[in-house]
Amino acid sequence: xxxxxxxxxFKNIQNYLMNSLINKANMMNIIVFAVIKQYYRFRRFFxxxxxxxRTEFLLMAFGYNMNKLHSxxxxxxxxxxxxxxxxx
Length: 88
Prior knowledge:
Radius of gyration: 20 Å
Strand content: under 5%
Number of helices: 2
Shape: flat
Low-confidence stretches: none
Mean pLDDT: 77
Number of strands: 0
Number of domains: 2
Largest sheet: none
Protein backbone atom coordinates (compact mmCIF):
# COMPACT_ATOMS: atom_id res chain seq x y z
CA UNK A 1 0.00 0.00 0.00
CA UNK A 2 1.40 3.38 -1.00
CA UNK A 3 1.74 6.23 1.42
CA UNK A 4 -0.09 9.44 0.66
CA UNK A 5 2.75 11.82 -0.22
CA UNK A 6 0.78 14.41 -2.11
CA UNK A 7 2.51 13.52 -5.37
CA UNK A 8 0.49 12.57 -8.39
CA UNK A 9 1.65 9.32 -9.88
CA PHE A 10 0.78 7.71 -13.19
CA LYS A 11 -0.86 4.84 -11.33
CA ASN A 12 -3.15 7.22 -9.41
CA ILE A 13 -4.16 8.99 -12.63
CA GLN A 14 -4.78 5.67 -14.36
CA ASN A 15 -6.92 4.44 -11.46
CA TYR A 16 -8.91 7.69 -11.46
CA LEU A 17 -9.57 7.45 -15.22
CA MET A 18 -10.62 3.81 -14.99
CA ASN A 19 -12.94 4.53 -12.07
CA SER A 20 -14.53 7.46 -13.90
CA LEU A 21 -15.12 5.30 -17.01
CA ILE A 22 -16.64 2.53 -14.93
CA ASN A 23 -18.90 5.00 -13.10
CA LYS A 24 -20.01 6.54 -16.40
CA ALA A 25 -20.84 3.09 -17.83
CA ASN A 26 -22.80 2.16 -14.70
CA MET A 27 -24.79 5.40 -14.85
CA MET A 28 -25.64 4.79 -18.51
CA ASN A 29 -27.03 1.35 -17.62
CA ILE A 30 -29.06 2.74 -14.75
CA ILE A 31 -30.54 5.40 -17.02
CA VAL A 32 -31.58 2.83 -19.64
CA PHE A 33 -33.33 0.66 -17.05
CA ALA A 34 -35.02 3.71 -15.54
CA VAL A 35 -36.35 4.77 -18.96
CA ILE A 36 -37.64 1.27 -19.68
CA LYS A 37 -39.38 1.13 -16.30
CA GLN A 38 -40.77 4.67 -16.33
CA TYR A 39 -41.73 5.40 -19.93
CA TYR A 40 -42.41 1.89 -21.20
CA ARG A 41 -44.11 0.90 -17.93
CA PHE A 42 -42.22 -2.38 -17.83
CA ARG A 43 -42.44 -3.59 -14.25
CA ARG A 44 -42.50 -7.39 -14.49
CA PHE A 45 -42.04 -10.21 -16.93
CA PHE A 46 -45.19 -11.88 -18.16
CA UNK A 47 -43.55 -15.20 -19.09
CA UNK A 48 -41.89 -17.74 -16.84
CA UNK A 49 -38.66 -19.60 -17.46
CA UNK A 50 -35.19 -18.35 -18.35
CA UNK A 51 -35.55 -18.64 -22.12
CA UNK A 52 -38.91 -16.87 -22.22
CA UNK A 53 -37.78 -14.11 -19.85
CA ARG A 54 -34.60 -13.59 -21.88
CA THR A 55 -36.66 -13.41 -25.09
CA GLU A 56 -39.07 -10.92 -23.53
CA PHE A 57 -36.22 -8.74 -22.32
CA LEU A 58 -34.46 -8.89 -25.70
CA LEU A 59 -37.68 -7.73 -27.37
CA MET A 60 -37.90 -4.84 -24.89
CA ALA A 61 -34.25 -3.91 -25.51
CA PHE A 62 -34.77 -4.15 -29.27
CA GLY A 63 -37.77 -1.83 -29.02
CA TYR A 64 -35.78 0.64 -26.92
CA ASN A 65 -32.91 0.66 -29.42
CA MET A 66 -35.24 1.03 -32.41
CA ASN A 67 -36.99 3.95 -30.71
CA LYS A 68 -33.61 5.56 -30.06
CA LEU A 69 -32.52 5.02 -33.69
CA HIS A 70 -35.80 6.45 -34.97
CA SER A 71 -35.36 9.53 -32.78
CA UNK A 72 -31.82 10.05 -34.08
CA UNK A 73 -32.97 9.58 -37.68
CA UNK A 74 -35.63 12.26 -37.29
CA UNK A 75 -33.03 14.65 -35.87
CA UNK A 76 -30.50 13.76 -38.63
CA UNK A 77 -27.91 12.62 -36.08
CA UNK A 78 -27.13 9.19 -37.56
CA UNK A 79 -23.44 8.37 -37.45
CA UNK A 80 -22.50 11.61 -35.71
CA UNK A 81 -20.81 11.59 -32.34
CA UNK A 82 -22.09 13.96 -29.69
CA UNK A 83 -18.72 14.19 -27.98
CA UNK A 84 -15.14 14.07 -29.17
CA UNK A 85 -13.34 10.83 -28.55
CA UNK A 86 -10.81 11.17 -25.76
CA UNK A 87 -7.42 9.57 -26.07
CA UNK A 88 -6.35 7.85 -22.85
